[in-house]
Design brief:
Layout (H helix, E strand, L loop, with lengths): L9 E5 L2 H11 L1 H17 L4 H18 L1 H14 L3 H8 L1 H11 L13 E7 L10 E9 L6 E7 L6 E6 L6 E4 L3 E6 L14 H9 L4 H10 L6 E7 L3 E8 L2 E5 L5 E4 L6 H4 L13 H15 L5 H8 L14 E2 L5 E11 L4 E6 L6 E6 L5 E5 L3
Parallel strand pairs: 1-4
Antiparallel strand pairs: 2-3, 2-11, 3-13, 4-5, 5-6, 6-7, 7-8, 8-9, 9-10, 12-13, 13-14, 14-15, 15-16
Helix pairs in contact: 1-4, 2-5, 3-4, 3-5, 4-5, 7-8, 10-11
């Protein structure tokens, strides 16, 4: 493994929301500060001084507190543990919404050449297509390559619900993950003409709410019934053998069901009902999305009727039409940022394990994280 690609730090927390947050912040303070630097720097570039930044972030704090006061308590703990301001942790957890609103206020629309948040390719393999009869759920997360310096795997041991594992940017409450009740979530960037026309709960908090649920029905409620400020695609599965995808506009969610035991989704709207109601405005930024999901489906189908974790990994390593590929090497985008597949995450919820390879276009070494065991570094994945 190249020396520059280190495994994601493992952070194990327990106790009250504040205690959990404090342990999180104290465990990885430099990574928390790097998260703040990445997104706070964008606000600075947009001309926000400290007072304007505080006012902007304060609006989102109210949405979060109304959704769950314990989320703010956990963020307060992270801030205290890492020695940073609470508003900066709120910003990390609402960064998609904060930066988009900041742009709108400054009349700085996103350029057609600019790559946005959460370009991902996700997949759910249901038991009927799985070699061991168990759900496999994974994704590639495409975003800023520097986020390999902020990513962690967080295990939260709870007294008030199921324990969970989440791959997340340091300082965040959740990204993708799975819980001890067998509920898993991944998410992909979507965009439409309804975005940022209403206020809503930040996407990271909806994902966290999903991981707190004992039952898939309530996870679906959190995804499909929570008002959002912007679009997102959220893929849910349960260890019991069901998966569903929701293409979410801010005020409406459109379900996509498995076909032939699988769901694969990238960063464009595919549901016919959704396409009849919303305008897909992301094409200038993620045109390669139209073949990324096709490639993953094709490779999985070619691998056979009964699929393994290795089959999913191989599909997600795909370099067809690189660098605009399923697995994206680090490359400068037109804004000067380095864009890459930051991590590949593959979950086996029945076994309570999540395998993560940072920067998989240059690193095929996974670390196995567990709901109950210590992390284990695995052998390099085969070419």
């Amino acid at each position: 493994m190249p020396a520059m690609v280190q495994p994601c730090p493992f952070v194990d927390v327990s106790g009250s929301p504040y205690q959990r947050g404090r342990q999180h912040g104290a465990a990885v303070p430099s990574r928390v500060k790097r998260s703040i630097e990445l997104y706070g720097g964008q606000l600075g570039d947009l001309g926000y001084d400290a007072k304007a930044k505080s006012a902007l972030i304060g609006e989102f704090a109210g949405e979060i507190e109304a959704f769950g006061a314990h989320y703010i308590e956990e963020m307060r703990g992270i801030a205290d543990g890492a020695g940073v301001a609470l508003e900066d942790i709120i910003m990390v957890n609402a960064r998609t919404e904060v930066i988009a609103k900041a742009r709108m206020i400054k009349n700085r629309p996103v350029e057609a050449t600019e790559e946005l948040d959460d370009g991902c390719t996700g997949a759910i393999i249901l038991p009927e297509r799985s070699a061991d009869g168990e759900v496999i759920h994974g994704q590639n997360w495409d975003w800023r390559a520097e986020c390999a310096e902020t990513a962690i795997v967080l295990r939260v041991r709870r007294d008030d619900g199921p324990d969970f594992l989440t791959f997340v940017e340091a300082g965040g409450l959740a990204r993708c993950g799975m819980n001890a009740a067998g509920v898993s979530i991944t998410a992909n960037y979507l965009e439409c003409d309804r975005d940022f026309t209403q206020s809503g709960v930040p996407l990271a908090l909806i994902r966290r709410k999903v991981l707190e649920q004992e039952h898939l029905a309530f996870a679906i409620k959190a995804v499909a019934a929570t008002p959002k400020a912007c679009s997102n695609n959220m893929m849910l599965s349960t260890v019991k053998g069901f998966g569903i995808d929701f293409e979410c506009a801010p005020d409406e969610a459109f379900p996509i069901y498995p076909q032939d035991g699988m769901i694969v989704h990238a960063n464009h709207w595919v549901g016919q009902v959704a396409l009849g109601k919303v305008k897909n405005t992301s094409i200038p930024r993620v045109p390669e999305s139209f073949y990324r999901d096709w490639r993953v489906k094709k490779l999985l189908d070619e691998a056979g009727r009964k699929l393994t974790v290795d089959n999913l990994k191989q599909a997600l390593f795909d370099d067809f039409l690189t660098p605009y590929s399923v697995c994206r090497p680090a490359r400068p985008n037109e804004q000067g940022n380095l864009s890459a597949t930051v991590a590949m995450v593959v979950m086996q919820p029945a076994k309570g394990i999540m395998e993560v390879a940072p920067l998989p276009a240059q690193n095929r070494v996974f670390t196995r994280y567990s709901l109950t065991e210590d992390p284990v570094l695995l052998a390099e994945a085969a070419e």
